[in-house]
Structure formats: C-alpha cells, structure tokens
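call fold(seq) -> tokens
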Amino acid sequence: MSFNSDKWFFVFGTLKPGFTQFTWNQQIHNRHFKLACHKAYLRDYELYQSEFPTVIQEIGKYVEGYIITSEKWDELVKICDQIEEYPSYYTRFQAQVELDEDASKKVTAWVYQMQPDRYKLEELVRIGPSFQPK
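ret:
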C-alpha cells in the first residue's frame, strides 16, 4: 500500500473515487495531493440512502467501497470533514476494513455515518446490494 499509512478513510458514497459527485477531487488536485486508494469492504454493515448514503450495522452484510489516504493526512481530514459536514450531519467511527485483494488483510479506517437524528429508520432505502467479497 502506498504511503505505508496507518491512517485511512473507508469511503462508500460521494467521496468514492470515480463517483459522479466526486467534486472534492478538484480540491485534492488543486492542493497537489497524492492519494492512495484501494478497493475494500466494511463487514457487518449495509448501505442505505435517505437524502445521502449512510451505513447501518447489519451482521453478515458487506459494504463495498475504498480506503483512501494521503501524505497530507491532516488536510485530507479537513476536506472530508467539511464535505460530510462533520460532526453536525455525519459522525465518524473506526472499523476494521477488509482489503479486496486479500480479505485476510485488514486495516483500521475511519468511516462516516449519518447522525441518527438526520434520518428516520423506516424511511431509509437499502441501496446495497448485499454480497460476499471474493
């Protein structure tokens, strides 16, 4: 993995590379970031949507996403926090994330999750799909 980092974000929605709303990509490039990115899975969570995507804990489910880091970690955190409106809209927690190339390899990553007061559970739409990684 690039940068030999122990600081990662697990991203699954608008922060995901290649996503149509990857608008913060310009901020990264404008600040000359080098971004390391690897496909990964968050075990025991499922992906839901209200106004924006969020993860909800569900045993046996997986969320597909990416882990990202940068040699400018502090700046990356500031940008991501700003986009995710942390801590008022999203909160962060740390979780073990399995790497796509080898599920036995895991990293601890920060994951954004919508604050519970920002959605009604019964109005969330599952946007999974649930699957088992390779």
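Helices lie at 24-30, 73-83.
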